[in-house]
Amino acid sequence: MNQLSFYQSSKAFDLQAIQLYEKQFTNNPIYRSFCDLVHKHPSDCESVIEIPFLPISFFKTHKVLTGNPECSHIFESSGTGGKTSSHHVADIEVYEQSFFNCFELFYGHPNQFAVIGLLPRYLEKPNSSLIYMMQKLIEISDCVDSGFYLDNYQKLHDVLKRREQANQKTFLLGVSFALMDFAEQFPSSLQHTIVVETGGMKGRRKELVREELHAQLKQNLEVGDIQSEYGMTELLSQAYAKDNGRFRCPPWMKVLVRNPNNPLDIQAHGTGCLNIIDLANKNSCAFIGTDDLGRIYSDGTFEVIGRADSSDVRGCNLMVS
Q1: Handedness of CA 23, 70, 90, 109 (dihedral sign)
Q2: 60 in the same domain as 158
Q3: Whether the predicted model's global pTM rises above the 0.85 cut
């Protein structure tokens, strides 16, 4: 159950990543074709910054799998029009292990909380990886107050108020527009509640920069910090920002930065597009080039500062059809 937590040191992580790169180069035909197109081979790789990262758009156009396993689940992105991403998951227990160990690492065991999801947009998609994660955490919490509250803000307010009066801890994760709606309609004082936003105005409200969003939520909910979760359909791991807006990864996940105009120019820190190594993606592709712009600091923490102007970054759309 704890194998993903073994990669504590940078050296151990890098070794595992390079070994997985060699395996996926050999057994993942989509990834192998991309590596061939950018003229990258495991024999040329001496460090993780030399590993080629598959553009995330490939999950919209191809079935990205290592080997030929039977897939127990297919997670699909929420999407706002056009093609959506599909992540074929061969072993759902790896995902469950990843998100449970990650939650425990950052917050402790879920049974210490009432786990509440305020995720109306995601609940419209039956194959959402975020909904799957929250449903399992809700079950593990084994608390009568845990659950999805949709837009029943009055009930949510009543539950939070009762739990606050009893000094009971709550973990509230919500999409940004729903948290804003709730906070405006039911201003509260949440001293025993962890509030985590997972992004996503998606046309439901005016887009706000993260600092402005957090400032308004902190004022209306009277909490010291608004925390953030960073995850996506194409990954089986998450990063969390508990303070200062900087995300931290679990030991089996690492974020690098690439030059937006040269996808093979990759650095350990700096500003550019985010590349993610997710060792939990051992059955799909562990090396993902995202469309998110970010800043990575020397300690490995990172910020998300926007989106690339074009998802078809030069050199990355050769195989999309």
Answers
A1: negative
A2: no
A3: yes
